[in-house]
Amino acid sequence: MQRRASSRTGRRSNRERTEVTRGDLIAAARKLFTERSYAETSTPEIATAAGVTRGALYHHFEDKQALFRAVVEHEAQAVAEEIERATPPALSVRRALLAGADAYLAAMAVPGRTRLLLLDGPAVLGRTEMDAIDLRHAGRTLREGLAAAMGEGAIAEGPVDALTGLLSAAFDRAALAIDSGASAADYRSAIAALVEGLLSARKR
């Protein structure tokens, strides 16, 4: 019994060490990618910053692009979590869409996030893969909100995927503008007006 318990503890410790190492690599890579760009960052520099060997890096990630993909996925998930926290199920469809839009802009204000998700991400991984990542995270939350609005007749029926893509593009443009120094209040108001206008287009 004692030996089996120790064995189970050892397996948990190995798993935990793996998760810690991956987390350290993702955190180190994020810092370097946002400070220096993807192109100007090397895997030896990432390994050094994470406190691991280059061999350990390649044990967890196939190459630099795979590590970058993990960083991007981690950031996209963080944005979605912020949106979900701001939009509990008790909210009406209207309030959820407005709160979600505001939460998205707040989440994208984290330093380096617009560069990773909206600039370097498409350049390194391609638009198709970035769209797929978005649809697993923030894009998914938006699509669910729009689908709920359509179900309630709050907006005209139509291709929800196309509407999600168009509204996502508006949100991304606002995040980039704010990151470049534009008035966050102005863009928040503009996005709110866009959502309100969409919701006011009642199904006929």
Automatic annotation (TrEMBL):
Residues 19-79 form the HTH tetR-type domain. Pfam families: TetR_C_41 (PF21351), TetR_N (PF00440). It comes from the Bacteria. Keywords: DNA-binding, Transcription, Transcription regulation. Residues 1-21 are annotated as: Disordered. InterPro entries: DNA-bd_HTH_TetR-type_CS, Homeodomain-like_sf, HTH-type_TetR-like_transc_reg, HTH_TetR, Rv0078-like_C. Residues 42-61 bind DNA. Residues 1-12 have a biased composition (Basic residues). This is TetR family transcriptional regulator. It comes from Archangium minus.
